Amino acid sequence: MAGDLLDSEGRGEVFSSLPRIHPEGRKFAIGALAISLVFAFFAWETLAWPMAFLSLGILAFFRDPDRVVPQDERYVVSPADGTVVQITQVAPPQELVVDDGSGTEGLGTDPVTRVSIFLSVFDVHINRTPISGMVRRLVYIPGKFLNADLDKASEDNERQYILVERSDGVKIAFAQIAGLVARRIVPFVKPGDTLGVGQRVGMIRFGSRVDVYLPAGTGSRVMIGQRVIAGETVIAELDTRPLIEGVSQ
């Protein structure tokens, strides 16, 4: 039913528990902890304690909490935890416009609203799909590792575009962008996969940015400087009058 709240596994309630740790992070945490134990064995406490705290920091970085997802087809939810740093009108990326030979049309050439979300190392780095639908494109672009907070990071940095199409033809694209510290984009999906809104689609390691390209004519419901939560915060509502500066919700 429209407006119902479900978590990412279909449960209609929020429950209190410690967030799971994504498998990508376990090997790093175990490695840091193992080094800490070696240092402790040799009584090198000045080295052992920092490594122990580092292992805890790694576990915190790779936390993967459940989210309660709004179930309303009008809503576009945030694909990332972080802070909105830019809301602007741009032309869609060429990689999402040109014919890729798959037989599926990409985005149009008309300008669209792009919402840019910056993720610090303290944010959850699991990314989620803004809408339900099928993955039509997944395009990896090698590039630089500039500060993800800069405007030119959208065009210059290493990034991965994901284009999702709903059954009614609505298409939304978003980009996972590597940052100054982030050095790897890890996808969980592939073209042809069918996703539920708020489903996990990938992660970016250690600080990054996610850009969302809203459908033409759709405006933002968030403001620059606002904190958003992946899979929960509604960043746009389809078929509403564009507001480039965003509005508070």
From TrEMBL:
Keywords: Cell membrane, Decarboxylase, Lipid biosynthesis, Lipid metabolism, Lyase, Membrane, Phospholipid biosynthesis, Phospholipid metabolism, Pyruvate, Transmembrane, Transmembrane helix, Zymogen
Location of this chain's protein in the cell: Cell membrane
Location of the active site: 208 (schiff-base intermediate with substrate)
Topology relative to the membrane: Peripheral membrane protein
Note describing how the cofactor binds: Binds 1 pyruvoyl group covalently per subunit.
Modification(s) after translation: Is synthesized initially as an inactive proenzyme. Formation of the active enzyme involves a self-maturation process in which the active site pyruvoyl group is generated from an internal serine residue via an autocatalytic post-translational modification. Two non-identical subunits are generated from the proenzyme in this reaction, and the pyruvate is formed at the N-terminus of the alpha chain, which is derived from the carboxyl end of the proenzyme.
Cofactor(s) of this protein: pyruvate
Family: Belongs to the phosphatidylserine decarboxylase family. PSD-A subfamily.
Name of the protein this chain belongs to: Phosphatidylserine decarboxylase proenzyme
Assembly and interaction partners: Heterodimer of a large membrane-associated beta subunit and a small pyruvoyl-containing alpha subunit.
Presence of keyword Cell wall biogenesis/degradation: no
Annotated catalysed reactions: a 1,2-diacyl-sn-glycero-3-phospho-L-serine + H(+) = a 1,2-diacyl-sn-glycero-3-phosphoethanolamine + CO2
Top enzyme class: lyase
Organism from which the protein derives: Qipengyuania gelatinilytica
Keyword flag DNA repair: no
Pathway: Phospholipid metabolism; phosphatidylethanolamine biosynthesis; phosphatidylethanolamine from CDP-diacylglycerol: step 2/2
UniProt-listed Enzyme Commission number(s): 4.1.1.65
Function: Catalyzes the formation of phosphatidylethanolamine (PtdEtn) from phosphatidylserine (PtdSer).
Main location: membrane
Gene Ontology molecular-function annotations: phosphatidylserine decarboxylase activity
Alphabetized HAMAP family for the sequence: PS_decarb_PSD_A
Modified residues (Pyruvic acid (Ser)): 208
